[in-house]
Amino acid sequence: MNQEWDIQPRSRACSGCNAAFQNGASYFTSLYFEGGRYERADYCEGCWQGGARERPRHSAWRGCYETPPPPPPPALRGETAESLLRNLMAANDPANRNTIYILALMLERQRIFVERERHTGEDGRSLLVYEQRKTGETFVITDPRLRLADLEAVQAEVTARLGETAPREETAESAAKV
């Protein structure tokens, strides 16, 4: 019999007394089967010694609680990157070519844009034809043939224009991989 098990992750607080676990403190986990599914309960040492360990269970273990890291900063939202791309394209300023290209790559990586075609224009420039996945709109982006050394400066410009604090390595790496 093939079954999916949906067991909740470790709690941040004791299932017995609701006290928050402290970083480095021992905790005890009890896994038991109830109502046709596995349930997990995490206990502090006091509650475990005070009777929780005597309850019927399928499995139990002891661990050392580690405070979870803070959530990562929010990634660049597709709508924001896309709206910036649209605004820069509408401005039709050649100085924005690098930024437009990086934004298009970001949107492709986020699976918002799909590359449909790549060809060389009459003037010898490489052109990328993207389609916005949901709306079907077409975007023609000029490939400025950025060098790896230029990516950091362009990424900083994109981040500044979006007004967010995206990690440099992530965006530069994303652009370099495409």
The topology string of helices and strands comes to: EEHEHHEEEHH
Number of strands: 6
Which residues form runs of ≥5 with pLDDT under 50? Answer: 165-178
Shape: elongated
Compute the average pLDDT: 81
How far apart, in Å, are the first and last alpha carbons?
43 Å
Strand arrangement, major sheet? 2-1-3
The chain-level structural class is alpha+beta
Total of helices: 5
Q: Main beta sheet, described?
A: 3 strands, antiparallel
Strand content: 15-25%
Q: What level of helicity do the residues show?
A: 25-40%
- Radius of gyration, whole Å: 26 Å
Give a short overview.
With 178 residues, this protein is α+β, with helices and mostly antiparallel strands.
What does this protein look like?
With 178 residues, this protein is of the alpha+beta class. 32% of the residues lie in helices and 25% in strands. It is built from five helices and six strands. The protein has helices at 45-49, 78-91, 97-109, 148-162, 168-177, and strands at residues 26-34, 37-44, 59-64, 113-120, 126-132, 138-143. The protein has a three-stranded antiparallel beta sheet with strand order 2-1-3. Strands 4-5-6 form a three-stranded antiparallel beta sheet, with helices on one face. A hairpin with a 2-residue loop joins strand 1 (26-34) and strand 2. Helix 2 runs antiparallel to helix 3, helix 3 packs across helix 4 and helix 4 (148-162) crosses helix 5 (168-177). The longest helix is centred in the C-terminal third of the chain and has 15 residues, at 148-162. The protein is elongated, with a radius of gyration of 26 Å. The two termini are 43 Å apart.
